[in-house]
Amino acid sequence: MPPITSPVTAQELEILSVKAIEAKSQAYCPYSKFRVGACILTESGEFVVGANVENAAYPVGTCAERVAFGTAVVAGHKKFKALAVATDIKPAASPCGMCRQFIREFTSPSFPVYMYDGEGGYKVMTMDELLPDSFGPDHLPK
């Protein structure tokens, strides 16, 4: 696997990780107790956070990644540099399958996803590694 060339600076990555880890404290997860925080860095340099929001009717809960992307899109952002996702477990958890396709809608196969574990360690993978042979809006007829 070739090394990932990060589009983010060391300072941006530090802020991205801190905000994703802090976002876990806003998670509403009374059923699973599985806190997830996410932070997206927009192409314009803004940081947008999200946390998972569960529901008594389990299938209608929303993952932190989709909360963050939805918030960013509603605020007018459509281009992104990186995503950080933080959980309390080790090793770090990756976005679920639904989130992977949702993220791909707004990113390219080379988009980096930083996954933080409960001890602050992380692993980074591209969307192509998380969702190989994916399709996005660029594959649809215009």
UniProtKB/TrEMBL annotation:
Q: Which residues form a coiled coil?
A: none
EC number(s) from the headed UniProt entry: 3.5.4.5
The chemistry this enzyme catalyses reads: cytidine + H2O + H(+) = uridine + NH4(+); 2'-deoxycytidine + H2O + H(+) = 2'-deoxyuridine + NH4(+)
A Gene Ontology molecular function term for this protein is:
zinc ion binding
Query: Where, in this chain's numbering, is substrate bound?
Result: N52, V53, E54, N55, A56, A57, Y58
Q: Which residues form the CMP/dCMP-type deaminase domain?
A: 11-138
> Cross-referenced CDD domains, in alphabetical order?
cytidine_deaminase
Q: Which Pfam families match?
A: dCMP_cyt_deam_1
Q: Where is the active site?
A: E65
Query: Which family does the similarity line name?
Result: Belongs to the cytidine and deoxycytidylate deaminase family.
What is the role of the protein in this entry?
This enzyme scavenges exogenous and endogenous cytidine and 2'-deoxycytidine for UMP synthesis.
The protein's name: Cytidine deaminase
